[in-house]
Amino acid sequence: MRYRDDGPDVFGKPGSFESYGAASALPKIARLYDPAYDAATGAEVAARAAAGDPIARRAIGDNADAVGAACALLADLLVLDVIVLGSLAAYLGEPWIERVRATFAREALPHHATSCTLRAPSLPNLQDLSGLAAALSPV
C-alpha cells in the first residue's frame, strides 16, 4: 500500500509502507539523505543510530513514523483493541516504540488512538520464529 510518493524501492514499490517500515529498508532510507551511506543492513543502521549517527537516527525515525501511520490506518479501518508490533520493537526498544506510538496518536482518529494499545511482541526473536510457525501450520 502506498505510504508516500517517494521513498526507497523495497519489494518493487517505492514509497510503500513496507519500503519505509521494514528493517531491510533502513539502509535504503538512510541513502535518501546521503547516497554514499554505506550501511548494508538494518542492524548496522541501528548500531550507528545508537552511536549517535544523525543519518541513521533520521532513518529509524522515518521507519517508526511509517509503522505508526500504518498502525493508525489499521486501527481506523478495523477498530482494533491491540496491535502487536513486529520484530523491530524488540530490536530497537522503547525509544522506537515511543516514536511509533506518538505517530499513531497523531494519525489515528482520536477515539481509536485512545482505545487501541500498541505493544512489543511477547515472544523473543519474533521474526526468527515466523518461518517455523508457517512450517508448522496445517495446509
Describe, in short, the structure shown.
With 139 residues, the chain is mainly α. The chain has helices at residues 17-21, 26-33, 42-50, 54-78, 87-107, 110-115, 126-136, and strands at residues 82-84, 117-119.
Can you describe this structure?
This protein has a single domain, classed as ATPase, nucleotide binding domain (Nucleotidyltransferase, domain 5), CATH 3.30.420. It contains 7 helices and 2 strands. It has helices at 17-21, 26-33, 42-50, 54-78, 87-107, 110-115, 126-136; strands spanning 82-84, 117-119. Strands 1-2 form a two-stranded parallel ribbon. The protein is globular.
Keywords summarizing the entry:
mainly alpha, 7 helices
Unreliable segments (pLDDT under 50, ≥5 consecutive)?
none
Rounded to an integer, what's the Rg over CA atoms?
Answer: 15 Å
CATH superfamily: ATPase, nucleotide binding domain
The number of distinct β-strands equals 2
CATH class assignment: Alpha Beta
In the CATH hierarchy, the third-tier topology is known as Nucleotidyltransferase, domain 5
Residues in helices, as a percent range: 55-70%
CATH architecture: 2-Layer Sandwich
Helical segment count: 7
- Number of structural domains: 1
What spatial order of strands do you see in the largest sheet? Answer: 1-2
CA(first)-CA(last) distance:
27 Å
